[in-house]
Task: structure prediction
Amino acid sequence: MSLLARVALLTGIWLLAWGSARPETVVAGVASSIVLLVAFPPARGAAPLRRGVRPFAVARLLAYLAWQLVTSNVVVARTILRRRARVRTGVVVHELATASPWVMTVVANTIALTPGTMTVDTTRFPPTIEVHFLLLDDPDAARRGLARLERLVTAAVGGTVSRGDA
Result:
């Protein structure tokens, strides 16, 4: 990614954060972007951010995430509103089929977006992720869900499956 593209991307994020595209906000965003890129230059030979992104797979991933957000919000809200909530919390350790740091990052952050789940820890070697579930009735079903999420993310952003068939 070129320097100009990085400045544009960071400036765009700045404008979204401020919710305004007034001239002084744009100038401040460009200045902040340049300061950030000077203070924290990208590593030489770093992989590009969009490497291997597949639009149809991203659409499938987004549809899956939207469905998960709706269903998990309903389940968590229903559990909280019950008089006698039967909350069974637990942590599931799931070994990822890919060692790609990009896939691991997207999976971990996606899990953090879903109500009732939170990424506790990740380990790169071997590639594992620990997830806390607010409602953990079936650990095997939770692992299958994590494996499905990983497959969708891998299909969307690239990365090769290094072991097994997830």
About this structure: The beta strands are 90-95, 117-123, 128-133. The CA atoms of residues 87 and 112 lie 19 Å apart. Residues 3-39 form one domain. The chain is about 55% helix and 10% strand.
